[in-house]
Every structure is written in C-alpha cells, then in structure tokens.
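User: I'm putting together a teaching handout on how multi-component assemblies are represented. Below are the sequence lines for each component of a complex, exactly as they appear in our records. Could you produce the 3D structure of the whole assembly as structure tokens, so the students can see both representations side by side? Please keep the chain order the same as the input.
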Amino acid sequence: MSHAEWTLTAQDFWGLRTIKWSPSGVCLLSGPNGAGKSSILDALKFLQIAAIRGISEAVRIVGGGAVLQRLGAALNTPVRVGLSLGDLIWEIQLPVEGGSIHPNHGEVIKQGSNVLARRAMYSTDVFLGGEQRSADERSILQMLWDVQRPPELLPMIELTRGIRVYSSYWLNQIRDPQKSMDIDAYLHPTGKNVWNVLRNWKAAPRKFNDQFRWVLNALQGAFPDLVLDLEFDLVGTAVVGRFYPPNAPTAEDSLPLGAAADGLLVGILHLTAVAGAKDGGILAFDEMENQLHPHAIRVILKAMRERAEERDLTILLTTHSPVVMNAFKGHEDQFYVLETGQEVLPIPLDKARDPDWLAHFSLGDLYDREGFSAPKLPALPSAAE
Amino acid sequence: MRVAILPTGRMELLGVPPALHALFPTHDFHSISKLPRDEEPFDSFTSSDKPLTLNKPNGNVDKIVEQMAAELVPGRDGLAPDLLIVLEDLEPPNMHQPAVVVQLFRDAIARHVEKLQQSNLRLADRVEEALRSKASFHLAVPMIEAWLFADPNGPRNAGVPAERLPPNWESAHDPEAFLTRDPVYLSDDCSACTAWHTLTSRKKKDHSPGWLKQSPNVHPKAFLAWLCRNPVEKNCSRYRETHEGAAALQALDFPAALRSPDHCTYLRALVDDLADGLGEKLSFPLDGYVAPITSHRERRASPMLRNI
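Assistant: Of course. Below is the structure of the complete assembly, with chains in the same order as your input.
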C-alpha cells in the first residue's frame, strides 16, 4: 500500500508549542535534552491509542496523570493534536480546566472543507454527518467508521492502526520464557512478546511473508560473531528462545536468548518491530542506538531503509548518537532537528543549516561540535549581579 | 577586513587575535573555536612525542581542514571572513621536517576537496578558489611560547620574576630554533616542587612539570614554566597558557620580536602574508628572511592556500 503524505500536527502538546511534521521514509530527529523529541513520539502514540481505544484512555496512558499541556501555554488554551492524510484531517482538542484535562474533549474529522464528523469541546453530543448521537468512550474517528464505514475514511483508519511507538523495551521481562500465544504477529511496544512473534513467523514462513528470514539475515549482519541462527522451543506452555553462534552448530553449543547481551536483544527487538510493521505503517524508536555497537547500528539502519523502501514504511528515530547521524549524510532532508527559537518544529537539517556548510562535515562530528541541536545556555549574569 | 584565526592551542585562541589587531588596528580578528560557546581550540595534529610521518595522517588535521573550508564557503551563518589563518605548532619532534607537516596539511586539503567533488562539484570549485585566495597555514616554531622569547619583554609579560629573566637570551639564539643550556634548568629534578610531591601518582602524571618531559632544552613552554616555577602550585609553576601566556601574547611587541633579520622567519612569513592579504603597509620595516615553506611570496606549482 502506498498512501498520501501524512502530517502530524500538535499545539501545546507536552514540551512543544507547535508541531507540524510530514516525515517520509527513515527519518531522524535530534535535539538537546528536553527539546521535545519524546513529545513528538508521544503525540503519535497518543493518536494511535486515541483512535483505537478512545481519547480518555490515550490521556490516561500518555499523560500518566499529568496534564498534557505545555508548561507556559496560555490558560484555558486546549491542547491540540491531529493527523492529516491527503485531504483528510483528524484533530483532537483537549480542554484544560483547573489543572487537568476535561473529560469532554473536542474532535473533528474533515475532508477538505467538508466536516464528516465533529464533537464540540465540553459537549456530550457527537455529529456524524447530519446524525446526532451521544458520545461514548470511542473516538469519533472510530465511531464514524463503526457506524457508517465511509470508504474515504479507510486510509486514516489504516494509518492510525499502523502506528507503533517503541520508547523502551522491557529487557528484564524479555529474558524470561514467554507464555506461548499463537496470535502474536507483531511486536508489542514493550517487546514482551518477541519470542512468540518470532516463533510464529518461523513456523509459518509463507503466511508471514518470510519475516523471520529477514530478521535473521539482518541479525547475522549486525552481529556476525554472535548469531548464526535462532530457534524456539516450547517448554510446557512457555516459549524459550536459543541462539546459535557461528562456531556453535549443535544444540549443545547454543545459548539461551535470555542470557544474550543487551545489544543483541535490542537488535532482535528493533528488527522484529520493523519486520512486523504493516505496509504503509509508521514506526518510531526512541534512541534506537542504545546498547548497540556502531557496526550493529549501521547494519540495522541499512536494513530499516531497505524495508521502509519495500513496504512504504515511515520509520522515525530519535537520537543523540553521532554514529546514527553519520548514516544520514546525503539524507539531510530526512534529518530533522529541534532548534531553539523556531516557532514550528521539527525542521529538516538542510533548512536549519546551509547545505553547503553541512557538506564539509560528517553530521555526527558537527553535532559533537554543537553545530546544531545544541542546548541553549542561560545568559550569564552581568558583573553587577 | 575580517580575519579568522583557527588555532590549535588555548593561548593562541585567546591571545593571537588581539595581538594581530594591535598590529593591524583597522581590521577585525577573531578566533574559531572547536565548540561555538567554549574557548576550546581544535585538536593539534602535531602534538606528539614522535615525529609525524606522511603515511600516517591523524584525524585532527582533517577536522581542521573541513572547518577551515566551511568557514570560507559558505561561511558561518553565510558570513565568511576575508582571510583565514590556521596556526599550528611545529613541535620539537618535527623541527627537522616542517615540509612533512605542511605536506600533511596539503594532503588533508586534497582529501577534503575530493570528498566535496564526489557530492557537489560546484561547491568543491568554490572552496578550492576560496582556499587559494583567502586561507593560509602558518607554523609557530617550535611552539607559540617561542614568540614570547623573541620579544625582550615577553618573558616578563608572561610573569617571569625580574630576578629570573634569562640573560641576553634574545641576542644569542633564534627563538624559533629554541635551545637553552641553562644548567640549573636542565638539572632540575623537581625535588623542590613540594605541592606536586604530595599528589597521588595518577595526579602527579596529570600535573607533571613540563621540564620533566622529553628534551626540555628545546621546549620554550617548559622553560617559561620553569622560569615561573612555584613549589606551592600543583604543577610547580605559576605560568598558565590561558592567563599569563595569553596576556603576554596580547602584549607582543612585533617590531621587537622581528628586529633580528635572521630570526623568527616563520613568524615573519605570517606577518608578511597578513600584511599582503590586508593590503596594509606595516609601521616598521619587515626586513629579514621569511621561511620559504610558509611564505606566500614563494611561487608554487600547485598552490592550495595563499602560502602553501
């Protein structure tokens, strides 16, 4: 599936005043600590949860009890977050009242200037076209789809269901045997079902389009001295994974995946996430470089790019790693930065800096030299102070 | 005109622009540091206990060259200086082979231009042209502290007490061929460095007095530090590059430093190049020899910068 350009928009959401972002392919996002990289991933996660499980649930999970509003935003200004896809627009308005998000949010779905569905802030009524209904826990995106199934809404439904945000894996839990589940076909955001997913893929290569083979090939490249093969056993009702190093061809020489190095586990998780993405899907990884050797980073990035090209995926990576940044030399239009002093973020690096200036440097080296995405220092006190 | 200095030492970073501004007061001089907000110079590519070899370039020279090129085309925030001078120490291990140091720099330029050619031929052409017309590579020989010994007031300006000023130093030696035979200095084993002796072995290494290192007789910085020796300091000296050194550099008396026609030929090459680039006539006669290897007056078959 190939879809139209999509755009993430948000206003006063977490750490950022205005987000407007239309990434495509494998894109990088950098910025100083606290600049809002995670806020952008959270906005995507919010929309994915809101679309499927409802907005109150998204507020609960992403907000975690805190107000989602940007510190410093004007009082009573709603937090806005939305997606546009072609001429389809879905926007959520979260009213802020008394230091918390009011439960009756606003929401609108438009196609061009035509309003397909809407719910006003503070209201309990929903309008699906000309039809008035009472609001329930569903987003009106889901409600409209459930009630009317308008075909023009399908791309937005697919887009929101294809969002996967991987912020942190539960490595300790992943090391334990996992209860066998035949239905697991894609990676949970925590990675907790990884052995089930890989086992299911390996058991049915035709059904799962040889996704296991793709993961294994990329793993062999990323960890050439660690991995030749992966196998999964059922021990009672639990799945136990084993890996075979290149010099360990027999089962006696294999090692349990639970005892694998963190870097190997993270590599397996990243690749499983990418392989399991729906065509046209959006994947986001927060600081994908964590625990990985530079060689593994480069190989996994290359595999991500190939997969993104084949499957029309959008893969978003936040990073502080010069190694990751160096892999975007020549792709500066896909390297986005959160720079202080900009009204709308993020901006592509080749717009933030003169491309002729960038041409002289490796990007990781320039980042190291604080040539972009550098923290803003507070003004020094004057001599009189 | 705007002149950028790209140095590889803190003392040069702080001291060279004001020193040159005093020499050419109608022009602006500024340093380029590695980090935009810190006074952190680029890493030297000559600082080593061993002589450099042509087949072993280190990454530092490439970083200096790419910064030099970027500063000229397109310039930081689109604003390029009118002239740019890279200033590097030759260092004692390379005293016999300045040509190797210059060649390493030229090789790095060639690598950078070739890299640009692969991605953007138009940019590569502009960079090559800008380098030839605006950029120079100069050497402080063997290191920047030699300039202070060229100026009769240099050691005093750097904090050397009157009773320790080296007698008749300036008339006896070319500071750029620095050599001291001071027997007290050469035999000082730091036994009087009481504060240094209280340090742990790890910290002793970090604060090791310069004159304990290899070949102190040809090391003007170590000699200057020794002249400013003070047993209560951890490194046994009051001399600090960023304070006393930079202050003495800022106060450098160029006419006095260049008064001897046979001495300071590398410094003379720098001043001569700068005066030419700025279109200025110096207020004092610049008579004497210039080091041909960094002189802009030398005709070269394939110049890469103004002077090499």
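A couple of points students might notice: Chain B touches chain A through 19 residues (CB under 8 Å). Chain B has a mean pLDDT of 94.
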